[in-house]
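HUMAN: Can I see a protein plus its fold?

ASSISTANT:
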Amino acid sequence: MNKDEMLTSEVSARIGIVITAQLLRDIGFEPVRLDKRAVIWDANQYPKMCEALAKHISAKKLVDRPVDTGERTSKKKPTTAPVTTNAGSIDDEEEL
């Protein structure tokens, strides 16, 4: 590899976040070559990669919403009392 080439991992290290080769392709860059499993990029394109990544990330704040992981912000469980009748507890799965 020469001084004008860089690995995807080097792009990630310089920026400080994990970047994938697929993401770089998705935002319009093509590798200069492949070396076995390594994807080699034109190091002279690095400033343009940063600009394109910043634009890509900025656009995401307008489109994507946080993924609901099902976790609650409060660690407390909701306090709901079971419904009881003379017959006992009613299960949520049972029909009324």
Observations:
- The radius of gyration is 25 Å.
